[in-house]
Design a protein that fits this description.
Blueprint (H helix, E strand, L loop, with lengths): L3 E4 L5 H17 L13 H9 L3 E5 L5 E9 L21 E8 L6 H10 L4 E6 L4 H9 L3 E7 L5 E8 L8
């Protein structure tokens, strides 16, 4: 099965929100009861991603939207301070990946997203909730280094990771 990643458009909103709802169910079933509370991510948040040219959908062979993520350029305001650790590199520009969502029966989405992201930038940061063990597993499996804790604007803490690959794709 091949997948296509393309920029999300406002006309994709209904399909994106279905994917987001499915991802919330996966989180709850795996014991992650607090991440992505009621109303988040909202259509307004997804619209902001799209308007920043950072919202992306993943389509299957039939053109059905099976995943969504945001890929946004730095700076990420909540990454300005990191606690109980430090970024691998805090000087160079980076991209951040947020709001990864897919259906339960669609496998390999995280790998597809990372292939896409690292084809556009060699310095990627990502964060996740301490109860999101599925995402932590995927992040670590794909070579990210745990860097510390960041705090969202609402005060919630997140585990923060970074991966940097050189032009020869040697990663740290």
């Amino acid at each position: 099965m091949s997948r296509t990643i393309r920029k999300a458009e406002l006309r994709d909103m209904a399909d994106i929100m279905k994917v987001v709802d499915a991802a919330k169910k996966i989180m709850r079933q795996s014991g992650n009861m607090h991440q992505w509370g009621e109303g988040y991510p909202s259509e307004a948040v997804i619209t902001a991603d799209i308007e920043e040219n950072g919202g992306f959908v993943i389509e299957d062979d039939d053109g059905k939207i099976v995943g969504y993520f945001a890929f946004l350029s730095s700076p990420e305001p909540t990454y300005a301070r990191i606690y109980e650790g430090k970024w691998l590199d805090d000087e160079q520009p980076y991209h951040v990946v947020h709001r990864i969502a897919s259906y339960r029966d669609v496998h390999g989405i995280f790998s597809s997203i990372m292939d896409f992201c690292f084809s556009h930038d060699s310095n990627i940061r990502i964060d996740t909730h301490k109860d999101n063990h599925i995402m932590q597993h995927n992040i670590e499996k794909h070579g990210f280094t745990y860097c510390g804790i960041i705090y969202l604007a609402n005060g919630d803490d997140r585990l923060a990771y970074q991966r940097i690959c050189s032009s020869s794709w040697k990663c740290i």
